[in-house]
Amino acid sequence: MRVNSFAKFNAFSTFSRLIPKMAPRTRKKEHVNSKPSEKDSAEKSRGKKRKVDEEVENTDKGKKGKTAAEPTVKTPDDKFTHWLIKSEPETRIEKGVDMRFSFEDLKQEENSTACWDGVRNYQARNFMRMMKVGEQAFFYHSNTKPPGIIGMVEIVREAYPDHTQFDSKDPHFDPKSKQEDPRWDMVDVKYVQPIARYIPLDELKRIHLKHKASNGPLRNIALFTKARLSVQPLTKEEWDFILQLQNEKPT
Q1: For 232-249, what is each residue's pLDDT tens digit?
Q2: Residue 94 pairs with which residues in a beta bridge?
Q3: Which residues constitute the domain of residue 176?
Q4: Number of H helices, E strands in the chain
Q5: CATH number assigned to the domain comprising residue 135
Q6: Which of 142, 150, 152, 234, CA to CA, is 20 to 30 A from 106?
Q7: How many domains does the chain have?
């Protein structure tokens, strides 16, 4: 996954490993010079930091200077028990940090488990707060060509405060969030397995449009109705259809 993955943890992550049932080791983050020398490029690998693919909430002010209210999540009587989570599989530097975190990167983490940090959208955060241990999610590669579903993960720890909101050097730092009243949460996810074939976004979109007309299983899938969210709910009907889709030839 990356060189020296067992070295240079930040202080928060190191401390957290000393306490039972705390977060798994934080993915290594390393600031990168904007113009590294050839020697630096050859001898020093960049750390990777999972980056969400969503529209970031204006967490400071709403209209007319008022504090933006946190939305509540409306759910059906049958609560969501399946999910889709997005991450970038290709290198992209933001504030000196490589935002890449692929499905393979997750597999290479200790115990193939990582904290799902960096979510900065209230609705996406609220969906994470609904997640329960043992539930499963599709791992979706975003900001790549083509984007799509590549594998499956399992929720192994329920929502708890995201430490990156307090790290001033982290791209997801939120100066308005307080230790005693944190705004942002994360969950821990564990690599399960790749799906039988990569299911690209354009294939899912064609099926979604067809199902809108025929009242099919993917008619209301959040991938197109809540497209900007990096954490999305799936109904059991949607989950089962996509599981079946992986074994069929592309449409």
Answers
A1: 999 999 999 999 999 999
A2: 97
A3: 46-54+77-245
A4: 7, 8
A5: 3.10.590.10
A6: 234
A7: 1
